[in-house]
Specification:
Layout lengths: L1 H23 L3 H14 L4 H17 L3 H8 L6 H5 L3 H11 L3 H14 L4 H12 L9 E5 L9 E6 L6 E6 L19 E8 L2 E2 L3 E2 L11 E7 L5 E7 L10 E8 L2 E2 L3 E4 L6 E6 L5 E6 L9 E6 L11 E2 L10 E7 L3 E6 L9 E8 L2 E2 L3 E2 L10 E8 L2 E6 L9 E7 L4 E9 L10 E6 L4 E5 L5 E4 L9 E7 L6 E6 L7 E4 L2 E3 L12 E2 L9 H16 L4 E7 L6 H21 L7 E5 L12 E3 L2 E3 L7 H5 L4 H11 L1 E8 L15 E3 L6 E4 L1 E2 L5 E7 L2 E8 L6 E3 H10 L11 H4 E2 L2 E2 L4 E9 L2 E11 L6 E4 H4 L5 E4 L4 E4 L1
Parallel strand pairs: 24-30, 24-31, 33-34, 34-38, 42-48, 43-47
Antiparallel strand pairs: 1-23, 2-3, 3-4, 4-5, 4-6, 7-8, 8-9, 9-10, 9-11, 12-13, 13-14, 14-15, 16-17, 17-18, 18-19, 18-20, 21-22, 22-23, 24-27, 25-26, 25-28, 28-29, 32-37, 33-37, 35-36, 39-50, 40-41, 41-42, 41-46, 43-48, 44-45, 46-47, 49-50
């Protein structure tokens, strides 16, 4: 028994030793067979088994089989061996990311970075998981498998080989190739160059480009690219040899009819692989991939130039660390000589090789950008070419293909855009008809639509195209214009833009005007206040619908009668000045209040070192308590003033000649306030009132306890600007729905004025059946003071 065990151990050692040799010589398929056989023979040697599991993981990683690599790496990733070997965590994480398991991959990237905090590839892996773990980042392409061209083996690296783009050359290791052997590295057959012709709206079945074994030999041939005239092909050849000193080279052959000249080597390196060429149109510059010395690590993109065709290329130049990384950069392709496409596993991406784009700007390559899904996938994506900016081909071993690497055709997806929305009045939330919607494109084209009766508008795909920026402008008379920007660059599927917009009415709020102060006992207008009144003159001229009330006041010294007359003269001096400046007297209402209305300060005043605080009322008692005569005199001066207030915005100039005389009304305590009313056709008493400074009519219904307002009156006041959506109690979206006002809604009148008296924050219930009426019942009339009705004089008199 001991002898059998000993012989078994010796046999295992031989198998492992042979597999290790194959692994060292890059013969991974043979190594896999040996390691698997040794694994199956082992029973208890745990440490040795883990070493073999790690080697198997490496073999499958290096032969591009991430799922199999994960199986073997998982057996050692959480063991002590993993901490001793610097590559296990990183390679395991990479394989996990390749199959879409970024959650687990992040765990092992972080473990690797604990030991190697500066490792570039681990950082790239983490960044890739953060930004490319799903297909939310994507490009505007549709991708198709070219089933007719592809086989169950590897098909890759397409190039156009005819001027009309109706012929393709590509690489394939399908059965029937001249090379009959398999590579020990990948197990794949040797590759040849094949062609397919486009006919009857389809690519034809591929055939070898050469049966004479001039281009295609028993070696590996592939990655062809043509010059501008399509009479010279550059391609990669890797000779069949077990000698590790034999490397891949770039060769050139000329096409003469259906025959090819004997290829000659144009680029080679005695100690590194050189291949995957791209040649500039003039054939003076060639780009390629190589693992030669002087690179960033792995395979890099290089370029070489020459003075004339047929001459030897100069020493190659590495494209630098912006393009190249410690990973692999391969399969260069240039569009327009300044936009470089290439494949890399060293820049952040989805997994495996991804395709990147870099632009040459002032001799410097810009930071490469991932061209995103669906061009890139979790698997290897490489060897992209373009027929034009919207169509091309690439190679990939992504899921769903026919074999290993497959050729895919991609085209830019046609995206259809539309735009629609509803425009409403910001104040009322009612829809606005006849709003002009202007759609201005970045190329200067303008299209204009109007909203319909429901405030709706729309633009279809006729007016909105891909990759454009539009300025959307909403405009309507008496409303502020609103604009929005629409960008159609960042969409990958059909999209409808919805812009529901609120237009804000141009404000008609009361305009604050400066005080006019007078000397004691004087009524002449001081020059400095004439300048202040010029502002008022401009405002009235710009807004000929305003009605201005001028309120003149005196201080409390002298008799009431003297002060009443003095306030009248002060008001008259202001009126005379305004009329002299061309103001229609009908826009002016002047009132003399004498000493009856002490001033209430709207801001703090600093007077003679004393502070009069905001909201202070300058009554006799307040003034008498001030410390000095100078300060008291300053307070009296503040009471001697003429104030201005906009009380209405609906003045209509008379067709009759304007009179230069404006009657000055003197407010008298003893008479109270008498307001005349008229009778409607239905014999309702109608009285003038002002709702938030807008003139209206109201029914005097003093026999009714409750006041109310009709729905149509609310709507009219909202359209005028006297009311807005903010004046309702409750959910305005429910109250102002479908261009109606909800029955029973409560609207709050901020200021209701009858004659010279005002009350604030009056609540009125809305009735839908009463049209344009406001009914003032006993509840609100009593807010203005005790009153009586004189039916003979048709007056309501407030004491």
């Amino acid at each position: 028994m001991a002898l059998i065990i000993g012989l078994s151990a010796i046999s295992q050692d031989k198998i492992i030793k042979s597999a290790n040799s194959d692994f060292k010589n890059l013969q991974y398929q043979s190594a896999i067979k040996g390691y698997t056989k040794a694994w199956n023979k082992m029973k208890k040697n745990t440490t040795q088994k883990r070493r073999i599991a790690f080697k198997l993981g490496e073999c499958y990683r290096l032969t591009n089989k991430p799922s199999d690599a994960i199986f073997w790496y998982s057996k050692v990733a959480d063991k002590k061996l993993a901490w001793k070997n610097p590559g296990i965590f990183l390679h395991y994480a990479d394989a996990l990311r390749r199959v879409g398991n970024c959650e687990q991959a992040i765990v092992y990237y972080q473990k690797h970075l604990e030991k190697y905090p500066d490792d570039y590839l681990a950082k790239v892996g983490l960044l890739s998981c953060e930004n490319f773990s799903d297909a939310t980042n994507k490009s505007r392409f549709i991708i198709y498998n070219e089933n007719v061209i592809n086989s169950t083996e590897d098909d890759y690296s397409v190039t156009f080989s005819a001027k009309k783009f109706n012929q393709l050359f590509f690489s394939s290791n399908r059965k029937g190739s001249v090379g009959k052997d398999r590579e020990n590295w990948t197990g794949a057959w040797f590759s040849d160059i094949y062609q397919s012709n486009y006919k009857n709206s389809s690519w034809g079945m591929p055939v070898s480009v050469d049966e004479t074994e001039v281009l295609n030999t028993e070696a590996n041939e592939g990655t062809p690219v043509f010059n501008k005239k399509f009479n010279t092909v550059y391609f990669t050849r890797c000779e069949k040899s077990n000698d590790k000193k034999i490397f891949c080279v770039i060769m050139q052959s000329n096409r003469k009819g259906q025959r090819w000249t004997k290829p000659k080597t144009v680029l080679a390196d005695a100690s590194a692989n050189t291949g995957q060429p791209w040649i500039r149109n003039d054939e003076l510059v060639i780009y390629f991939s190589s693992d030669r010395e002087g690179g960033s690590g792995g395979k890099d993109i290089w370029m070489a130039s020459r003075q004339r065709r047929g001459k030897k290329f100069d020493e190659p130049i590495n494209l630098g660390s912006v393009v190249n990384t410690v990973g692999d950069e391969m399969f260069p392709y240039l569009m327009g000589d300044s936009i470089l496409y290439f494949s890399s596993n060293g820049h952040p991406g989805y997994g495996g090789l991804d395709i990147f784009k870099s632009t040459l700007a002032d001799t410097i390559w810009e930071v490469p950008q991932n061209v995103l899904f669906p061009i890139n996938s979790d698997d290897d994506d490489f060897a992209i070419i373009f027929k034009d900016e919207k169509e091309g081909y690439l190679s990939s071993n992504r899921q769903g293909g026919l074999g290993g690497d497959d050729i895919y055709h991609f085209v830019t997806k046609k995206i259809f855009f539309s735009l629609e929305g509803i425009v409403k009045n910001e104040r009322t939330l009612f829809t606005l008809p006849d709003v002009q919607i202007s759609l201005l494109s970045s190329d200067g084209v303008t299209e204009t639509h109007l909203t319909n009766n429901q405030g709706q508008y729309s633009f279809d795909s006729t007016f909105l195209i891909e990759d454009n920026i539009y300025n959307l402008i909403f405009s309507k008379e008496n409303f502020f214009s609103v604009s929005n920007e629409i960008n159609t660059f960042d969409y990958y599927d059909n999209h409808t833009f919805i812009y529901n917009t609120l237009l804000k009415p141009i404000p008609e709020d009361p305009i604050l005007l400066p005080d006019i102060l007078f000397d004691l006992g004087k009524w002449n207008l001081k020059p400095q206040y004439q300048d202040s009144l010029l502002v008022l003159v401009k405002i009235i001229n710009d807004n000929p619908n305003l009605i201005i009330e001028l309120r003149s006041h005196t201080d409390s010294r002298s008799s009431i009668e003297f002060n009443d007359e003095l306030s009248q003269k002060r008001a008259q001096s202001v009126v005379d000045y305004l009329v002299s400046k061309g103001i229609d007297p009908g826009q002016l209402i002047a009132k003399g209040y004498g000493e009856r209305v002490p001033r209430k300060l709207t801001r703090d005043f600093m007077v003679e070192g004393a502070v009069f605080e905001k909201d202070a009322v300058l009554t006799n008692q307040f003034i008498d308590n001030l410390p000095t005569n100078k300060i008291q005199e300053s307070a009296h001066e503040l009471n001697r003033r003429t104030e201005f207030m906009i009380i209405a915005k609906d003045y209509k100039p008379s067709s009759l000649p304007a009179s230069d005389i404006t009657e000055i009304e003197i407010i008298n305590d003893s008479s109270g306030m008498a307001i005349t009313y008229n009778l409607s056709q239905e014999d309702y008493p109608l009285i003038d009132c002002y709702i938030n400074n807008y003139k209206s009519e109201a029914i005097l219904d003093h026999e009714n306890t409750a006041s109310f307002i009709g729905e149509q009156k609310v709507i009219d006041l909202m359209k005028q600007g006297a009311l807005s959506k903010e004046d309702f109690e409750g959910n305005v979206d429910e109250i102002l729905k479908d261009n109606k006002v909800k029955e029973g809604a409560i609207v709050v009148i901020e200021k209701l004025r009858l004659g010279d008296r005002s009350v604030v924050n009056i609540r009125l219930a809305v009735r839908n059946s009463t049209g344009s009426l406001i009914s003032l019942g006993n509840d609100i009339l009593n807010e203005f003071g005790s009153y009586k009705i004189d039916d003979i004089k048709k007056q309501i008199i407030f004491k």
